[in-house]
Amino acid sequence: MRICILGGDGYLGWPTAMHFSARGHEVVAVDSMVKRYWEAVVDVAPLEPTPLLQGRAAHWYKKTGKVVEVVIGDIATDPGLLHRLFRDYQPDVIVHYAEQPSAPYSMMNQNAAIHTQQNNIIGNLNVMFAMHDYCPQAHLIKLGTMGEYGTPNIDIEEGWIEIEHKGRKDRMLYPKKAHSLYHLSKVADSNNLEFGCRIWNLAVTDLNQGVVYGIDTLEMGKDPELRTSFHYDDIFGTVLNRFVVQAAVGSPLTVYGNGGQTRGYLNIQDTLQCVELAALHPAKAGEFRVFNQFTEQFSIMDLAKKVQKVSLLYDLDVTISHLPNPREEMEQHYYHAIHTGLPELGLQPHHLTDEVIAHMLDRAICAKETVRSVGLLPRVTWKHGMDDKGITGVVRE
Ligand SMILES: NC(=O)c1ccc[n+]([C@@H]2O[C@H](COP(=O)([O-])OP(=O)(O)OC[C@H]3O[C@@H](n4cnc5c(N)ncnc54)[C@H](O)[C@@H]3O)[C@@H](O)[C@H]2O)c1
Questions:
Q1: Is domain 2-375 in CATH 3.40.50.720, yes or no?
Q2: pLDDT at 222
Q3: Atom of ligand 1 lying closest to residue 146 CA
Q4: Separation of CA 170 and ligand 1 centre (Å)
Protein backbone atom coordinates (compact mmCIF):
# COMPACT_ATOMS: atom_id res chain seq x y z
CA MET A 1 0.00 0.00 0.00
CA ARG A 2 0.98 3.64 -0.45
CA ILE A 3 0.52 5.16 2.98
CA CYS A 4 0.58 8.81 3.89
CA ILE A 5 1.08 9.57 7.58
CA LEU A 6 0.05 13.05 8.62
CA GLY A 7 1.77 14.02 11.89
CA GLY A 8 4.74 11.75 11.16
CA ASP A 9 7.10 13.50 13.60
CA GLY A 10 4.83 12.77 16.59
CA TYR A 11 4.75 10.28 19.45
CA LEU A 12 2.53 7.93 17.42
CA GLY A 13 3.30 9.13 13.89
CA TRP A 14 6.98 8.15 13.70
CA PRO A 15 6.50 4.63 15.15
CA THR A 16 3.59 4.15 12.71
CA ALA A 17 5.81 5.21 9.79
CA MET A 18 8.47 2.64 10.77
CA HIS A 19 5.84 -0.04 11.41
CA PHE A 20 4.37 0.22 7.90
CA SER A 21 7.77 0.72 6.26
CA ALA A 22 9.13 -2.43 7.96
CA ARG A 23 6.26 -4.39 6.43
CA GLY A 24 7.14 -3.31 2.90
CA HIS A 25 4.60 -0.53 2.38
CA GLU A 26 5.53 2.79 0.73
CA VAL A 27 5.41 5.50 3.37
CA VAL A 28 5.46 9.28 3.27
CA ALA A 29 5.48 11.15 6.59
CA VAL A 30 4.18 14.72 6.70
CA ASP A 31 4.68 17.15 9.58
CA SER A 32 4.96 20.89 10.19
CA MET A 33 7.05 20.40 13.39
CA VAL A 34 4.50 22.59 15.15
CA LYS A 35 4.52 20.28 18.18
CA ARG A 36 8.13 21.23 18.80
CA TYR A 37 7.01 24.88 18.81
CA TRP A 38 4.13 24.14 21.23
CA GLU A 39 6.63 22.39 23.53
CA ALA A 40 8.71 25.57 23.60
CA VAL A 41 5.63 27.67 24.32
CA VAL A 42 4.81 25.70 27.47
CA ASP A 43 8.48 25.16 28.34
CA VAL A 44 8.60 21.36 28.24
CA ALA A 45 10.65 18.75 26.39
CA PRO A 46 10.42 14.99 25.85
CA LEU A 47 12.17 12.73 28.37
CA GLU A 48 14.94 11.88 25.91
CA PRO A 49 16.19 13.98 23.01
CA THR A 50 14.17 13.15 19.90
CA PRO A 51 16.03 13.54 16.59
CA LEU A 52 14.27 15.50 13.86
CA LEU A 53 12.03 13.52 11.52
CA GLN A 54 14.48 13.86 8.62
CA GLY A 55 17.32 12.48 10.77
CA ARG A 56 15.26 9.54 11.95
CA ALA A 57 14.16 8.73 8.39
CA ALA A 58 17.81 8.87 7.23
CA HIS A 59 18.89 6.58 10.06
CA TRP A 60 16.01 4.18 9.32
CA TYR A 61 17.21 3.99 5.70
CA LYS A 62 20.82 3.38 6.76
CA LYS A 63 19.73 0.64 9.11
CA THR A 64 17.07 -1.14 7.02
CA GLY A 65 17.46 0.07 3.43
CA LYS A 66 13.82 1.17 3.59
CA VAL A 67 12.65 4.65 2.65
CA VAL A 68 10.30 6.85 4.64
CA GLU A 69 9.81 9.96 2.54
CA VAL A 70 9.53 13.18 4.53
CA VAL A 71 7.40 16.20 3.62
CA ILE A 72 7.55 19.29 5.82
CA GLY A 73 4.42 21.40 5.74
CA ASP A 74 1.31 22.52 7.57
CA ILE A 75 -1.94 20.82 6.59
CA ALA A 76 -4.11 23.42 8.33
CA THR A 77 -2.67 26.56 6.75
CA ASP A 78 -1.47 25.18 3.40
CA PRO A 79 -4.26 23.23 1.68
CA GLY A 80 -2.17 23.22 -1.53
CA LEU A 81 0.33 20.92 0.18
CA LEU A 82 -2.30 18.20 0.46
CA HIS A 83 -3.58 18.84 -3.07
CA ARG A 84 -0.11 18.28 -4.52
CA LEU A 85 0.65 15.35 -2.26
CA PHE A 86 -2.59 13.44 -2.85
CA ARG A 87 -2.55 14.21 -6.60
CA ASP A 88 1.02 13.03 -7.14
CA TYR A 89 1.31 10.29 -4.53
CA GLN A 90 -2.19 8.77 -4.85
CA PRO A 91 -2.22 7.19 -1.38
CA ASP A 92 -4.25 4.06 -0.68
CA VAL A 93 -4.33 4.93 3.01
CA ILE A 94 -4.05 8.25 4.85
CA VAL A 95 -3.38 8.06 8.59
CA HIS A 96 -4.27 11.40 10.12
CA TYR A 97 -2.54 12.16 13.44
CA ALA A 98 -1.66 15.80 12.69
CA GLU A 99 -3.54 17.65 15.41
CA GLN A 100 -2.89 19.53 18.63
CA PRO A 101 -3.27 16.56 21.03
CA SER A 102 -3.50 18.06 24.51
CA ALA A 103 -6.61 18.86 26.56
CA PRO A 104 -4.73 21.12 29.04
CA TYR A 105 -3.11 23.00 26.15
CA SER A 106 -6.55 23.73 24.72
CA MET A 107 -7.77 24.96 28.13
CA MET A 108 -4.76 27.22 28.75
CA ASN A 109 -6.28 30.45 27.40
CA GLN A 110 -8.48 31.78 24.62
CA ASN A 111 -5.74 31.89 21.99
CA ALA A 112 -4.62 28.34 22.63
CA ALA A 113 -8.23 27.10 22.54
CA ILE A 114 -8.90 28.84 19.24
CA HIS A 115 -5.57 27.74 17.78
CA THR A 116 -6.36 24.13 18.76
CA GLN A 117 -9.76 24.21 17.12
CA GLN A 118 -8.48 26.01 14.00
CA ASN A 119 -5.51 23.71 13.59
CA ASN A 120 -7.49 20.53 14.14
CA ILE A 121 -10.80 21.28 12.45
CA ILE A 122 -9.39 23.16 9.44
CA GLY A 123 -6.58 20.63 8.95
CA ASN A 124 -9.14 17.84 8.94
CA LEU A 125 -11.38 19.72 6.48
CA ASN A 126 -8.37 20.26 4.22
CA VAL A 127 -7.74 16.49 4.26
CA MET A 128 -11.39 15.84 3.35
CA PHE A 129 -11.40 18.31 0.45
CA ALA A 130 -8.05 17.09 -0.89
CA MET A 131 -9.34 13.50 -0.79
CA HIS A 132 -12.55 14.52 -2.54
CA ASP A 133 -10.63 16.29 -5.31
CA TYR A 134 -7.54 14.12 -5.79
CA CYS A 135 -7.88 10.63 -4.26
CA PRO A 136 -11.54 9.84 -3.56
CA GLN A 137 -10.78 6.12 -3.46
CA ALA A 138 -8.30 6.41 -0.56
CA HIS A 139 -9.13 5.18 2.94
CA LEU A 140 -8.75 7.77 5.68
CA ILE A 141 -7.82 6.51 9.15
CA LYS A 142 -8.44 9.42 11.49
CA LEU A 143 -7.41 9.55 15.13
CA GLY A 144 -10.22 10.62 17.38
CA THR A 145 -10.36 10.05 21.13
CA MET A 146 -12.48 8.27 23.73
CA GLY A 147 -12.66 11.67 25.45
CA GLU A 148 -15.16 12.75 22.77
CA TYR A 149 -17.81 10.68 24.55
CA GLY A 150 -17.10 11.96 28.05
CA THR A 151 -18.49 9.78 30.84
CA PRO A 152 -22.21 9.29 30.13
CA ASN A 153 -24.27 7.27 32.58
CA ILE A 154 -25.06 4.73 29.84
CA ASP A 155 -22.91 2.31 27.81
CA ILE A 156 -20.69 3.99 25.21
CA GLU A 157 -21.26 2.40 21.81
CA GLU A 158 -18.74 2.37 18.95
CA GLY A 159 -19.58 5.69 17.34
CA TRP A 160 -23.19 4.97 16.45
CA ILE A 161 -26.36 4.33 18.47
CA GLU A 162 -29.85 3.06 17.58
CA ILE A 163 -32.34 5.52 19.05
CA GLU A 164 -36.06 4.96 19.49
CA HIS A 165 -37.93 8.22 20.00
CA LYS A 166 -41.71 8.59 20.14
CA GLY A 167 -42.21 5.24 18.46
CA ARG A 168 -39.72 5.82 15.60
CA LYS A 169 -36.16 4.50 15.26
CA ASP A 170 -32.95 5.75 13.63
CA ARG A 171 -29.21 5.05 13.69
CA MET A 172 -27.46 8.23 14.84
CA LEU A 173 -23.94 9.27 15.71
CA TYR A 174 -23.48 8.57 19.43
CA PRO A 175 -24.10 11.80 21.43
CA LYS A 176 -20.90 13.38 22.76
CA LYS A 177 -20.14 15.08 26.10
CA ALA A 178 -16.51 16.00 25.49
CA HIS A 179 -14.05 16.72 28.30
CA SER A 180 -12.28 19.81 26.86
CA LEU A 181 -12.05 22.18 23.91
CA TYR A 182 -9.43 19.83 22.43
CA HIS A 183 -11.85 16.92 22.66
CA LEU A 184 -14.55 19.11 21.12
CA SER A 185 -12.30 19.72 18.10
CA LYS A 186 -12.32 15.94 17.61
CA VAL A 187 -16.12 15.86 17.89
CA ALA A 188 -16.29 18.45 15.10
CA ASP A 189 -13.87 16.34 13.02
CA SER A 190 -16.06 13.27 13.49
CA ASN A 191 -19.19 15.14 12.44
CA ASN A 192 -17.46 16.63 9.40
CA LEU A 193 -16.07 13.26 8.34
CA GLU A 194 -19.43 11.50 8.71
CA PHE A 195 -20.84 14.21 6.44
CA GLY A 196 -18.00 13.62 3.92
CA CYS A 197 -18.82 9.90 3.84
CA ARG A 198 -22.56 10.52 3.45
CA ILE A 199 -22.31 13.23 0.80
CA TRP A 200 -19.06 12.50 -1.08
CA ASN A 201 -18.79 8.75 -0.59
CA LEU A 202 -15.48 9.00 1.28
CA ALA A 203 -14.24 5.90 3.15
CA VAL A 204 -13.29 6.78 6.72
CA THR A 205 -12.32 4.91 9.89
CA ASP A 206 -12.50 7.10 12.99
CA LEU A 207 -10.40 5.56 15.76
CA ASN A 208 -11.64 6.81 19.09
CA GLN A 209 -8.45 6.09 20.91
CA GLY A 210 -7.99 5.73 24.65
CA VAL A 211 -4.96 7.03 26.52
CA VAL A 212 -1.71 5.65 25.10
CA TYR A 213 1.27 4.61 27.24
CA GLY A 214 4.66 3.16 26.40
CA ILE A 215 8.11 4.23 25.45
CA ASP A 216 9.19 2.08 22.55
CA THR A 217 8.09 -0.29 19.84
CA LEU A 218 9.60 -3.28 18.06
CA GLU A 219 11.07 -1.25 15.18
CA MET A 220 12.57 1.34 17.50
CA GLY A 221 14.22 -1.15 19.83
CA LYS A 222 16.83 0.59 21.93
CA ASP A 223 18.22 2.67 19.07
CA PRO A 224 18.39 6.31 20.31
CA GLU A 225 18.37 7.56 16.69
CA LEU A 226 14.90 6.07 16.16
CA ARG A 227 13.26 7.21 19.39
CA THR A 228 9.84 8.73 19.61
CA SER A 229 8.94 11.81 21.67
CA PHE A 230 7.94 10.59 25.12
CA HIS A 231 6.32 13.29 27.26
CA TYR A 232 5.89 13.20 31.03
CA ASP A 233 4.76 16.77 31.63
CA ASP A 234 1.42 18.26 32.68
CA ILE A 235 0.54 19.43 29.16
CA PHE A 236 1.57 16.67 26.75
CA GLY A 237 2.32 13.75 29.10
CA THR A 238 -0.40 11.10 29.29
CA VAL A 239 -1.08 9.89 32.80
CA LEU A 240 0.81 6.60 33.05
CA ASN A 241 3.85 8.03 31.25
CA ARG A 242 3.78 10.89 33.76
CA PHE A 243 3.46 8.64 36.82
CA VAL A 244 6.41 6.50 35.74
CA VAL A 245 8.70 9.52 35.40
CA GLN A 246 7.46 11.01 38.67
CA ALA A 247 8.31 7.69 40.34
CA ALA A 248 11.79 7.63 38.76
CA VAL A 249 12.68 11.05 40.16
CA GLY A 250 11.10 10.48 43.58
CA SER A 251 8.33 12.99 43.02
CA PRO A 252 4.83 12.12 44.33
CA LEU A 253 2.40 10.68 41.78
CA THR A 254 -0.07 13.49 41.15
CA VAL A 255 -3.59 12.06 41.28
CA TYR A 256 -6.21 14.64 40.43
CA GLY A 257 -8.99 14.56 43.05
CA ASN A 258 -9.90 11.15 44.42
CA GLY A 259 -8.62 9.35 41.31
CA GLY A 260 -11.82 7.46 40.54
CA GLN A 261 -11.80 8.81 36.95
CA THR A 262 -11.95 5.74 34.70
CA ARG A 263 -10.77 5.67 31.09
CA GLY A 264 -9.67 3.25 28.37
CA TYR A 265 -5.91 2.69 27.92
CA LEU A 266 -3.66 0.97 25.39
CA ASN A 267 0.00 0.21 24.80
CA ILE A 268 1.67 2.19 21.99
CA GLN A 269 2.34 -1.13 20.26
CA ASP A 270 -1.41 -1.71 20.11
CA THR A 271 -1.94 1.70 18.49
CA LEU A 272 0.26 0.43 15.65
CA GLN A 273 -1.57 -2.88 15.53
CA CYS A 274 -4.99 -1.19 15.44
CA VAL A 275 -4.02 1.26 12.71
CA GLU A 276 -2.56 -1.59 10.66
CA LEU A 277 -5.72 -3.70 11.13
CA ALA A 278 -7.86 -0.77 10.03
CA ALA A 279 -5.63 -0.28 6.96
CA LEU A 280 -5.76 -3.95 6.00
CA HIS A 281 -9.56 -4.05 6.43
CA PRO A 282 -10.63 -0.69 5.00
CA ALA A 283 -13.98 1.05 5.43
CA LYS A 284 -16.16 0.89 2.31
CA ALA A 285 -16.82 3.89 0.09
CA GLY A 286 -19.47 5.99 1.85
CA GLU A 287 -18.88 4.28 5.20
CA PHE A 288 -18.07 6.25 8.36
CA ARG A 289 -16.75 3.41 10.51
CA VAL A 290 -15.90 4.01 14.17
CA PHE A 291 -13.82 1.82 16.47
CA ASN A 292 -13.24 2.46 20.16
CA GLN A 293 -9.50 1.86 20.29
CA PHE A 294 -8.39 0.75 23.75
CA THR A 295 -7.64 -2.59 25.36
CA GLU A 296 -8.19 -2.16 29.12
CA GLN A 297 -9.86 0.32 31.43
CA PHE A 298 -8.42 1.64 34.69
CA SER A 299 -9.11 4.37 37.18
CA ILE A 300 -6.35 6.89 37.88
CA MET A 301 -5.90 5.36 41.35
CA ASP A 302 -5.52 1.87 39.80
CA LEU A 303 -2.62 3.23 37.73
CA ALA A 304 -1.00 5.09 40.61
CA LYS A 305 -1.10 1.95 42.77
CA LYS A 306 0.37 -0.20 39.98
CA VAL A 307 3.29 2.22 39.54
CA GLN A 308 3.78 2.44 43.31
CA LYS A 309 3.89 -1.37 43.59
CA VAL A 310 6.47 -1.80 40.80
CA SER A 311 8.57 1.06 42.22
CA LEU A 312 9.10 -0.97 45.41
CA LEU A 313 11.21 -3.42 43.37
CA TYR A 314 13.55 -0.51 42.66
CA ASP A 315 13.63 0.61 46.30
CA LEU A 316 11.90 3.81 45.26
CA ASP A 317 9.78 5.31 48.00
CA VAL A 318 6.88 6.54 45.91
CA THR A 319 4.01 8.43 47.49
CA ILE A 320 0.64 9.31 45.99
CA SER A 321 -0.48 12.91 46.31
CA HIS A 322 -4.14 13.84 45.79
CA LEU A 323 -4.24 17.33 44.28
CA PRO A 324 -7.34 19.49 43.86
CA ASN A 325 -8.64 18.39 40.46
CA PRO A 326 -7.64 21.04 37.88
CA ARG A 327 -10.15 19.57 35.43
CA GLU A 328 -13.93 19.70 35.52
CA GLU A 329 -14.82 16.02 35.43
CA MET A 330 -16.66 13.39 37.46
CA GLU A 331 -14.39 11.53 39.86
CA GLN A 332 -16.80 8.67 40.47
CA HIS A 333 -18.91 7.52 37.57
CA TYR A 334 -20.28 4.69 35.46
CA TYR A 335 -17.96 3.69 32.59
CA HIS A 336 -18.63 0.93 30.16
CA ALA A 337 -17.40 1.45 26.62
CA ILE A 338 -17.93 -1.19 23.94
CA HIS A 339 -14.71 -2.04 22.09
CA THR A 340 -15.32 -5.16 20.05
CA GLY A 341 -14.61 -3.92 16.51
CA LEU A 342 -10.82 -4.13 16.55
CA PRO A 343 -10.64 -7.47 18.43
CA GLU A 344 -13.01 -8.82 15.75
CA LEU A 345 -10.43 -7.80 13.14
CA GLY A 346 -7.74 -9.71 15.09
CA LEU A 347 -6.28 -7.32 17.67
CA GLN A 348 -4.04 -9.20 20.15
CA PRO A 349 -3.67 -6.80 23.10
CA HIS A 350 -0.49 -6.13 25.04
CA HIS A 351 -1.73 -5.90 28.63
CA LEU A 352 -0.45 -3.53 31.29
CA THR A 353 1.65 -5.93 33.35
CA ASP A 354 4.20 -5.16 36.06
CA GLU A 355 6.90 -6.03 33.48
CA VAL A 356 5.62 -3.33 31.12
CA ILE A 357 5.70 -0.75 33.91
CA ALA A 358 9.16 -1.96 35.00
CA HIS A 359 10.46 -1.53 31.45
CA MET A 360 9.18 2.04 31.33
CA LEU A 361 10.61 2.71 34.78
CA ASP A 362 14.04 1.41 33.72
CA ARG A 363 14.12 3.87 30.85
CA ALA A 364 12.88 6.73 33.01
CA ILE A 365 15.51 6.02 35.68
CA CYS A 366 18.26 6.06 33.00
CA ALA A 367 17.08 9.45 31.75
CA LYS A 368 16.19 10.94 35.12
CA GLU A 369 18.95 13.58 35.07
CA THR A 370 17.11 15.26 32.17
CA VAL A 371 13.77 15.46 34.00
CA ARG A 372 12.73 19.03 34.74
CA SER A 373 10.51 20.02 37.62
CA VAL A 374 8.44 22.31 35.41
CA GLY A 375 5.41 20.30 34.42
CA LEU A 376 5.59 17.78 37.25
CA LEU A 377 2.66 19.64 38.80
CA PRO A 378 -0.41 20.77 36.84
CA ARG A 379 -0.32 24.39 35.66
CA VAL A 380 -3.66 24.60 33.83
CA THR A 381 -7.09 24.56 35.46
CA TRP A 382 -10.28 24.23 33.45
CA LYS A 383 -11.79 27.22 35.30
CA HIS A 384 -8.85 29.65 35.15
CA GLY A 385 -6.47 28.46 32.41
CA MET A 386 -2.68 28.67 32.79
CA ASP A 387 -1.39 30.95 35.50
CA ASP A 388 0.93 33.76 34.35
CA LYS A 389 4.05 32.18 35.76
CA GLY A 390 3.56 28.94 33.90
CA ILE A 391 4.09 30.14 30.37
CA THR A 392 6.96 31.62 28.45
CA GLY A 393 5.68 31.78 24.88
CA VAL A 394 3.61 33.97 22.64
CA VAL A 395 0.32 32.11 22.62
CA ARG A 396 -0.83 34.11 25.62
CA GLU A 397 -1.51 37.79 25.00
N1 LIG B 1 -1.18 9.95 22.58
C2 LIG B 1 -2.39 9.65 23.05
O3 LIG B 1 -2.57 9.14 24.18
C4 LIG B 1 -3.61 9.89 22.18
C5 LIG B 1 -4.84 9.44 22.64
C6 LIG B 1 -5.97 9.65 21.85
C7 LIG B 1 -5.85 10.31 20.63
N8 LIG B 1 -4.63 10.75 20.23
C9 LIG B 1 -4.55 11.44 18.94
O10 LIG B 1 -3.59 10.80 18.12
C11 LIG B 1 -2.92 11.76 17.31
C12 LIG B 1 -1.41 11.65 17.52
O13 LIG B 1 -1.12 11.86 18.90
P14 LIG B 1 0.37 12.01 19.41
O15 LIG B 1 0.34 11.67 20.86
O16 LIG B 1 1.28 11.28 18.48
O17 LIG B 1 0.57 13.59 19.25
P18 LIG B 1 1.89 14.39 18.80
O19 LIG B 1 1.65 15.80 19.14
O20 LIG B 1 3.10 13.74 19.34
O21 LIG B 1 1.87 14.21 17.22
C22 LIG B 1 1.10 15.01 16.37
C23 LIG B 1 2.02 15.53 15.26
O24 LIG B 1 1.23 16.27 14.33
C25 LIG B 1 1.93 17.41 13.93
N26 LIG B 1 0.94 18.43 13.53
C27 LIG B 1 0.00 19.01 14.31
N28 LIG B 1 -0.71 19.89 13.57
C29 LIG B 1 -0.19 19.86 12.33
C30 LIG B 1 -0.51 20.54 11.11
N31 LIG B 1 -1.47 21.44 11.06
N32 LIG B 1 0.21 20.25 9.98
C33 LIG B 1 1.20 19.30 10.02
N34 LIG B 1 1.56 18.65 11.15
C35 LIG B 1 0.86 18.92 12.28
C36 LIG B 1 2.76 17.82 15.15
O37 LIG B 1 3.89 18.59 14.81
C38 LIG B 1 3.11 16.47 15.78
O39 LIG B 1 4.37 16.02 15.33
C40 LIG B 1 -3.46 13.13 17.71
O41 LIG B 1 -4.48 13.48 16.79
C42 LIG B 1 -4.07 12.88 19.07
O43 LIG B 1 -5.12 13.76 19.35
C44 LIG B 1 -3.50 10.55 20.97
A1: yes
A2: 87
A3: 6
A4: 34
